[in-house]
Amino acid sequence: MLSVIYAILFYVATAILVVGVGMKIRSYARSPAPLKIPTTPAPTTVSGVYLRMFREIVFFESLFKANKWIWLFGWTFHMSMWLVLARHLRYFTQPVWDWVVFIQPYGTYAGFAMVAGLLGLWARRFLVERIRYISAPSDHLMLALMVAIGGSGLLMRFVARPDILMVKNYMLGLMRLRIEQLPSDPILLVHLGLVATLMIIFPISKLLHAPGVFFSPTRNQVDNPREKRHLAPWAAKLEK
Fold first, then answer.
1. Tens digits of residue pLDDT in 207-231
2. Domain 2-224, what fold?
3. How many angstroms separate the CA atoms of 229 and 223, rounded?
4. At what angle do helices 104-127 and 68-87 cross, to 10 degrees?
5. How crowded is residue 102: how many other Cβ atoms within 10 Å of its Cβ?
6. Where are the domains of the chain?
7. Nearest to 179 by CA among 168, 167, 188, 170
8. Is the pTM higher than 0.85?
9. Each residue's pLDDT tens digit, 30-86
10. Angle at the Cα of 145 from the Cα atoms of 27 and 203, rounded to 5 degrees
11. Chain-centroid distance, C-alpha 75
C-alpha cells in the first residue's frame, strides 16, 4: 500500500510539475516586451547576448556585481544542487552512465555545500533588515523545505542508509509504469515526500526564476535602439 501511495504521489507531482512549468514558460514567451530595456552596459550583438546569458546563468554575474556575500551563498547552493541532481541520475538509468559514476563522490559532498548555501541565504532573511522586511512566510517555508530535503538526503547517506538497490528498482519501475516495493525507512519516506511537495509547488513559487531568467528583457535584448527600431509583434500588427 505504501508503494502504491508514493507511486500515485509522484505521478501526480510529475504531471503538475511538467504541465505547470510548461504553462508558465508559454506565458513568459507570449508576454509582450514593448520597450527596449536591456540593463546597461549591454551587448550590441546577438552573440554578445548569448555570452551574457551564459555568464548570468553559470556565474551569476549581475549578483556578483551587486552583493558578494549573497552571490557566494547563492552560487554555492545552485552549483551544488545541480551536481547533487546529476548524481541522482543513477537511480533512473540502467546501466549508469560513466560520467554519472565519476561524479558520485563529488555529488555526495556537494550535498553539504548545498545545505550550507541554503542556510546562508536563509540567515540573510533574518539578519539583513531590508531583506527581513520584504520576506514573506512563503520565502521561509520554501527555504525550510529545501534545507529539509538536503538534510534528509545527507542523513540517508551518512547515518541511516536505506536499501539503495530497492530504491533504484522502485524508481525504474515508476518510469516503466510498474510499481515495485519501496523501502519503508522513515527518513527515505520523509525525503521522498518532501521532494514530491517541492515538485507540486514549484510551478507556483518564486523558484520559477530558473526558466524565467531566459525571458527577462533586461538580459535577453540587444542594446541597439539607435541602429534598429524595437517593435513588439502586437504593435507591428497595428501598423499594418
1. 999 999 999 989 999 998 888 777 7
2. Fumarate Reductase Cytochrome B subunit (1.20.950)
3. 11
4. 150
5. 10
6. 2-224
7. 170
8. yes
9. 888 888 889 888 999 999 999 999 999 999 999 999 999 999 999 999 999 999 999
10. 10
11. 12
